[in-house]
Design brief:
Blueprint (H helix, E strand, L loop, with lengths): L2 H10 L1 H16 L7 H26 L8 H17 L5 H24 L5 H20 L4 E2 L4 H6 L19 H27 L7 H24 L5 H19 L1 H11 L1 H6 L4 H27 L1 E2 L7 H11 L11 H21 L3 H23 L9
Antiparallel strand pairs: 1-2
Helix pairs in contact: 2-15, 3-9, 3-10, 3-11, 3-13, 3-14, 3-15, 4-5, 4-6, 4-13, 5-6, 5-13, 8-9, 10-11, 11-13, 14-15, 14-16, 15-16
C-alpha cells in the first residue's frame, strides 16, 4: 500500500480512528470500567435518542447544511401528550403510540411546509418550534412530572423497564446465547453486504478503495460487532431499544444509499438550482426531510419517556445539539450534500463514549459541555479545511 493509499484510507476513516483512540483513552483513565458489560449496555440505552434523532437530522443537513432546532422540544411535547393519554386519559398503549406518531409527523409537516413552500429559513422556523413546543409541554404537564411506571408494556417495548431485554431463547446461562448468535449473524451479513457491494462496483468499473484498506476496515468492524455482542451477552443480552435503533439505521441507510429519493437529498445539497432544472421537485425534498424529522422525534420521545418511566417539562433539552453534533462529527458536511448514516452513527457513538467516559471519571458537567463543544468545532473545521485543500484561511 503506497503513501497515497494510506493517506486516503486515513482521511476516509478519520472518525473511526478517533473513536478507537478516545475509547482507548477512557479505558485507560477509568481502569477499564467503560468496557464493562453493564456500561456497554448503558451506552446504548442512554444514547438511543441520539442515534434516532441524528439519523433524521442527517436528511435535513444533506439538503444544504440545514438543521432542526426544535427536535428536543418536540420530543418533550410528544412524550408529554403520550404520558397524559396513557395515565390520565386511560388510552390503551397502542392508541397512545399511534397518536404520538401522528402528532410528531404533523409537527414535522407543519414546519416543513413553511420551510419548503414558503421558503422561510429553517433556522427561524425550527427556532420558533423549539420555543413553542417547549412551552406547550409545560402546558400539557402543568409543570409537573407524570409517571408511567405502571405502563409496563409500553416501558418494556421501548427499552425502559427491567425486562426490556430480548429473551434468551436458548436458556438462561451465564452468557446470553441469543445475543451471541445475533452478533455472529450481524457480522456475517455485514461481510456479505460489503463484499457483494465491492464486487458490483468493480464489475461496473466504478472506483473502489484499495483492497488492503478495504479488508482492514471489514475485519476491524467485524471484530467490533462480535466484541460488542459478547459484552452485551455478558450483561442481560440485547436491549429492546437496540432493535428500534437498528431498524432506523438499516432503513435509512438503505434509503440514502440505494433509492432515488435518497439521491435527491444529496442532489439538493450539492446544487439545488441544477437539481431543480433536472426536473426534481426540490420543495418536496425539503418537506420530506422535515416531516421525517418530526416522525423520528416522536419515536425518540417514546424512547425517552420509556427509559425515564415518566414525562417532565425539562426532557429533551439539548437533544438537538447532540443530534447536530453527531452528524457533523460523523462526517456530514456543513454545506450539505455529503454524509452517510453509518458515519452519523460513528459520530453518535463517539459523543456517547465521551459523555460516559467523562461521567465515569467524575468530570464536572460544565466541563463536559466544553469538551463536546471543542470536539464539534474541530470536526467542522476539519470538514471546511479539507474542502479547501488543507488551507485554513480562505482567499478573498
Amino acid at each position: 500500500m503506497d503513501k497515497n493509499h494510506v493517506l486516503g484510507f486515513l482521511k476516509k476513516n478519520t472518525m473511526i480512528i478517533v473513536l478507537i483512540i478516545v475509547l482507548a483513552f477512557f479505558a485507560w483513565r477509568t481502569g477499564g470500567a467503560i468496557l464493562l458489560p453493564m456500561n456497554v449496555s448503558n451506552l446504548i440505552s442512554q444514547n438511543a435518542y441520539v442515534f434516532i434523532l441524528a439519523t433524521g437530522m442527517l436528511l435535513c443537513i444533506l439538503t444544504g447544511g440545514n438543521i432542526d432546532l426544535s427536535v428536543g422540544s418536540v420530543v418533550c411535547f410528544v412524550g408529554a401528550v403520550g404520558a397524559r393519554l396513557m395515565v390520565d386519559g386511560g388510552y390503551p398503549v397502542w392508541a397512545a403510540i399511534l397518536i404520538m406518531i401522528i402528532i410528531g409527523t404533523a409537527i414535522g409537516a407543519f414546519q416543513g411546509f413553511w420551510i419548503a413552500f414558503v421558503r422561510i429559513p429553517p433556522f427561524i422556523v425550527t427556532l420558533a418550534g423549539m420555543l413553542a413546543f417547549r412551552g406547550l409541554s409545560n402546558v400539557v404537564l402543568n409543570g409537573l412530572t407524570v409517571s408511567i411506571k405502571d405502563k409496563t408494556s409500553f416501558v418494556n417495548l421501548f427499552g425502559g423497564g427491567a425486562d426490556c431485554y430480548i429473551h434468551d431463547i436458548f436458556g438462561n446461562g451465564a452468557l446470553n446465547l441469543t445475543c451471541l448468535v445475533g452478533g455472529i449473524v450481524a457480522a456475517a451479513v455485514f461481510i456479505f453486504v460489503e463484499m457483494s457491494g465491492r464486487i458490483k462496483r468493480t464489475k461496473k468499473n466504478y472506483e473502489v478503495e484499495n483492497f488492503a484498506g478495504f479488508l482492514a476496515k471489514v475485519i476491524a468492524i467485524t471484530l467490533v460487532i462480535l466484541v460488542f455482542a459478547y459484552k452485551l451477552a455478558q450483561h442481560k443480552g440485547i436491549p429492546s431499544v437496540l432493535i428500534w435503533v437498528l431498524a432506523v439505521v438499516i432503513i435509512y441507510g438503505y434509503i440514502t444509499s440505494n433509492t432515488t429519493v435518497g439521491r435527491h437529498f444529496y442532489a439538493v445539497g450539492g446544487n439545488e438550482k441544477a437539481t431543480k432544472l433536472s426536473g426534481i421537485n426540490t420543495n418536496k425534498v425539503y418537506f420530506l426531510a422535515y416531516t421525517n424529522m418530526g416522525f423520528l422525534a416522536a419515536l425518540a420521545g417514546m424512547v425517552t419517556i420509556a427509559r425515564l418511566t415518566s414525562a417532565q417539562p425539562t426532557y429533551g433539552q439539548n437533544y438537538e445539539m447532540d443530534a447536530i453534533g453527531s452528524c457533523f462529527i460523523g462526517g456530514a458536511s456543513a454545506y450539505g450534500g455529503i454524509g452517510t448514516v453509518p458515519g452519523v452513527i460513528v459520530g453518535a457513538v463517539l459523543m456517547g463514549v465521551i459523555n460516559l467516559g467523562m461521567s465515569l471519571m467524575g468530570v464536572d458537567a460544565n466541563m463536559q459541555k466544553v469538551v463536546k463543544g471543542v470536539v464539534l468545532l474541530a470536526a467542522v473545521i476539519f470538514d471546511v479545511v479539507s474542502k479547501r485543500g488543507g488551507k485554513l484561511i480562505a482567499k478573498n
